[in-house]
Amino acid sequence: MNQRVDIAIGVLRQGNHVLLAQRQAKQSHALKWEFPGGKVESGESVEAALIREFQEEVGVETAHWQPLIQIPWDYESVSVHLHVYESGQFQGEPHGKEGQPVQWTAISELSEYDFPEANKGILTALQLPEAFMISGDFHDELDALNRLEAALEEGIRLVQLRAKKMEEDAFKILAKKAITLTHRYEDAKILINGKPAWLEALPEADGLQLASTMIMELTERPVAEDKILSISTHTKAEVAKALELNADLLLLSPVKDTRSHPDMSGMGWNAFAEMVAEIPIPVYALGGMKLSDVTEARKQGAQGIAAISGLWPEPI
């Protein structure tokens, strides 16, 4: 493997739009769209590289860059480590100083553009929130829907519907109602924790959550490309398999010791960060997480936190 080249990538935001530039015909990945950035020079921080690159490429002064995602990627000719940051603070009007087309594009429309392959994780990260709620215990269907609605009212926008003790038919009935409820809230998405075949009965679901125990016998991505595939992982072998299946995002656990998995010791933030640094798609920290852990999770390279008890509301 080639030594990885450190590249600083900047997602400049203006409301729900981000700044894109189109690569020139003479460049590698010719005519593909990208987020501005470039090679991190020796002794230079990622933030300093972004400030310099945005001055040189699009003529704006930027500040307050914050980490979004790290992406290690191996092309045939070069290996890169993309350090992707985001900011909404800039002065000046962006323009292509090197003759390249530059434009503001809605985040919701990014899938319509042709990006270099390594950018997939960036596009996913931009459309995911910092908190991923997993449904916990409930007394009955009404109780489950009431708790879900309370969470959505509080701002939750990514939900995993999980009810391991329910019969399949009862779960699907609940899921249909939960999907309808979730989609009443702008940008809210709901994933079904279950078997891939269940999505055929629940086509309005946004995607599927697979347990780590279900992935090893799979040989290809089990859901359509327009659905989100999230996979629970605990080990490097499981992470590798999830990436082989072209997962869109991962849950990595347990970060801390939890009552739900007393047989598994928490890996701690250092081990978590080491694993995340080698994963080219968004990762949520799971295991003893609360909203107060979001800042630390982001600092350690995560998209944010996933939780049951830390996010699932108490009975109404």
Automatic annotation (TrEMBL):
Cofactor or coenzyme needed: Mg(2+)
Residues holding Mg(2+): G37, E57
EC id: 3.6.1.55
UniProt GO MF annotations: 8-oxo-7,8-dihydrodeoxyguanosine triphosphate pyrophosphatase activity; 8-oxo-7,8-dihydroguanosine triphosphate pyrophosphatase activity; 8-oxo-dGDP phosphatase activity; 8-oxo-GDP phosphatase activity; metal ion binding
Keywords: DNA damage, DNA repair, DNA replication, Hydrolase, Magnesium, Metal-binding, Mutator protein
GO terms classed as biological process: DNA repair; DNA replication; thiamine biosynthetic process
Domain Nudix hydrolase per the UniProt entry, residue ranges: 2-129
UniProt xrefs under Pfam families: NUDIX_4 (PF14815), TMP-TENI (PF02581)
Binding site for 8-oxo-dGTP: R23, E34, F35, P36, G37, N119
Annotated SUPFAM superfamilies: Nudix, Thiamin phosphate synthase
Catalytic activity: 8-oxo-GTP + H2O = 8-oxo-GMP + diphosphate + H(+); 8-oxo-dGTP + H2O = 8-oxo-dGMP + diphosphate + H(+)
InterPro entries per record: Aldolase_TIM, Mutator_MutT, MutT-like, MutY_C, Nudix_hydrolase, NUDIX_hydrolase-like_dom_sf, NUDIX_hydrolase_CS, NUDIX_hydrolase_dom
Signal peptide positions on this chain: none
UniProt KW Signal keyword: no
Presence of the UniProt keyword Hydrolase in the record: yes
Family label: Belongs to the Nudix hydrolase family.
PANTHER family, alphabetized: 8-OXO-DGTP DIPHOSPHATASE, NUDIX HYDROLASE FAMILY PROTEIN
Protein name as annotated: 8-oxo-dGTP diphosphatase
The species this protein was found in: Hydrogenovibrio crunogenus
